[in-house]
Every structure is written in C-alpha cells, then in structure tokens.
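REQUEST FORM: STRUCTURE PREDICTION
Request ID: SP-0412
Submitted by: Lab K.M.
Chain count: 1
Length (residues): 505
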Amino acid sequence: MFESLSERLGSVFEALRGKGALEEKDVTAALREVRVALLEADVALPVAKDFISKVKERAVGQEVLRSVTPGQQVVKIVHDALVEMLAGGPVGENGPDPADSEIRIGAAPSAVLMVGLQGSGKTTSTAKIALRMTKRDKRRVLMASLDTRRPAAQEQLKILGEQADIATLPIIAGQQPVDIAKRAMEAGRLGGYDVVMLDSAGRLSIDEQLMLEIAQVHDVAQPAETLLVVDSLTGQDAVQTAEKFKARVPVSGVVMTRIDGDGRGGAALSMRAVTGAPIKLLGVGEKLDALETFDAQRLAGRILGMGDIVSLVEKAAEDMDLEKAERAARKLAKGEFDLDDLADQFRQMKKMGGMGAILGMLPGMGKMKKQVEAAGGLENKEIARQEAIISSMTKVERKKPKLLNASRKKRIAAGAGVQVADVNKLLKAHRQMADMMKKMGKGGMAKMASQMMGGGMGGLGGGGGAPDMAALEQAAKQMGGPGAPGGLPGLGGGALPGLGGVKKK
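STATUS: Completed
RESULT:
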C-alpha cells in the first residue's frame, strides 16, 4: 500500500544523505517534497501540516545541521515524527505502548462489538479476530451475526465459523439485532465462553437508524471493545467515516482492512491523528490468518524503507514446521543441502507470501524487490514451476544432483512441462545455495552479518539508515552468490537462504 509514498520519500532522503553538510534551506526544500508526497498519498491536510511543522522544528537545530551525518539525523527525525503520528502522540524510549494494539478482554463472557459500513470487511474481520484469539490467546470464542438486513450475512459468518472451527450462534429467522445480542450474551454465559464477537449490521452510508441500533446493542452487550472496521482503500472517506462513528458510538479501536491493496495509504497515516482512536489490527489478505497487530514503529520503518525484521521473524516462526526446521538446521550445520531441502525452502516461502513479501520486510531491499519483480520469476507461479521440476526427479536424483546428465534433464523437463534451460537454471541456483550453506558453517555468516551491520542495519539507534547495499553485495559474493540484483543466492532461481533454520521458541 505504501510503495508510492516509500519511493518518493526514499528519493528525498537519498538526496539529503548525498550531502556532506546541510543548510536550513536544504532541509526546507526536502520537507517541501515530503509534504507533497504526504498529500499525494491522501494524508489529511491538517495532519500533513502538523507533521511537517514538527519535523522542521527538530531538523533545523544546530545539533542536526552540524552533525557528522546530518542526512541520517533528518531521516531519524522523520521516522520518529511518523511514529508519533501513527501512535497518536509522543512515545517513550521503548516505543509505543504495545497495550494500545491489544484487544481488551473483561470478565467472561466479554463482548467485542464490530461496527462499520457495509462492504468494509466487517464479517471477515470478525472471523479473523476470533481465530486469532482462539489460536494465539487460547480463548473460547462465540461469534454472532446481528446483520438481519444484508442477504445471507448471518450464513456468511456461520460458514466462516465452520472454516475456522469457531462456534457461531444458531440463526433464528426474524429475530431483531438487539434480541440477538441478548441471546448471544446469554449463550456466552451458559456455554462458558471467554469472548462473544458481535458482528453488527452495516449500511452503505451512516444514517440515524443505524446509529440508534448500534447504540441499543452497545447498551445491551456493554462491550469491552467497540472496534470500527474501515476499508483503507477508500482513502479520506475512511477517515470521515471513523469521525462520524466516533461522534456517536464509544469507538475504542480501529481495524483497517485491505492494507495489502494498492491504495495510497493516507487513511492509515491520518486515522489516529484525526479520530484519536488507536489502530488495533491490520487486515493484510483474504485468508482468515491474514491479520497483523498494528505497530506504529514497524509500519514507520517499512514506509521509510528500513524494513521490518521483527515481523519477518515472527511470521517465519508462525508459519514454520518446527520439526522440519530443526532437521534442516542440523543438515545445514553439516553443510548438507540437497534439492529436497530447496523444495522445502520454496514451500516455506509460499507460506510467508512469496519472495516479494519477504523482500518488503528486509531493510534497504525496496529497490531490489522492484528489480526482481520486473525481471519476473519470484512470484508463486515461478516457485510452483521450480517445485514441479524438483517433483519430476527421482528420490535419488534429488539427493544427488550430480547424477543429472543430459538425458535425465530432458526427461525431467518433459515431466515438468518446461525447457531443459529451466532445469539448468534451477540446478545452478541450488549449487549456489549449497556452496553458501557450506561457507555459513565455516563462519561466513558472521562475516556477512558484520558487513551488513556496518552499513547501518541497526540504524534507528544511530541515525536510522538502511544497510550498505555495496557491502551486502560484496558479502553475497563472498558467500558464493554473484551479487545483487538477482545475485543474492536464489533470487531469480528462487529461495531465501536460512529460513529453514528459523526456530520457534
């Protein structure tokens, strides 16, 4: 969602970093570009003005202009101001309070009321949150649809409940929303449920009847949380919707859906500042597990091209098969890496959203991600083709790729529906990966990490920079790969080294 904004801001900061010393006019000119970038991203005008004012006040101080790395200092100031805008105010030394993003749960059964306009993703978000509470927090959750107006709305929630193995309140035809809410809370008490999720009805626009109905349901259920669901693709309309709901209902948090879409991102940046209600969760896909906790610091890092290593590691830990990862780690420690291991890497990558999603979370990889995507070959279609090639091999061939002579390659290519050149491409990528794994076992990984850190990967503490891509390229070459773009082992041929070794605590 934030790609266009990230690209604009990246070019502005690149120009600042290229100057050995900064004058006030340089900062003013750069912030003018930042302001235009924010407005083009559909950020509310008052929010953009306030943001630029704060940044300029901090950035024209003597400690910045006379700093050894003034460009880096300005980037850090913009990062901190962006975090404050997303978090709704100044943050402490350890960043925003994580409790702001958590859903509060009261005495059982605790109600969570979902409100919003029709089509915002309210029903799907209800099921996503229920699944998250069930799996992550080990809560017993009951879902109930109060939407008696939209055709099949109650059936939709029932089907989602069956898919996620979460209980739903039985449907009684003709029952009104307030009565359904009463019955749901009673069922929650009698059934020993921790949480009752109430999916209220929506409208195409806000009207008095809608607000009256929600207020009555709120009085009956006394929810611990009233979550407003807004579609981030609607831009400033989402902010205006949030303002209107906030004025009539005690909204305690916001859930933003379709954050993975191609919208400009202004709604997400403006929401907290305009409404005062914290953003709790982000819907990042259609699947029921495609839900992320909102974290202002991480999102600011992604927008400024600093990546989000924490989210990447968390996602890897969630999606990883623990036993398989431990077996892979033991093999890698011995320098062993066959084509079955490469196939496992492909499968893990698909679980995590593909290489594009992974590169998007790595610091400084925004440009590489675009170059790789432009060249093609990193999306799930390409990964599926590579998997098909490996599947066309015998068990022995997968264990011992050196056995693959010309006739065997022809057979494999025919079985996978590809050209022999594609088989050779895969084998070359595997050799690079295997060589890299051997060097990792000889201390090469430490050297690579050292060079990356030297380039500023830990930048927030000392100036907010991204890794030195030249150092990263050189490290990749020393580790056995030909260098970026397309040169980190596996890019274009398909795998991200080391995911098999991620361990879950």
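NOTES: The beta strands are 110-115, 141-145, 167-168, 195-199, 225-231, 253-257, 279-283, 291-293.
Reviewed by: T.R.
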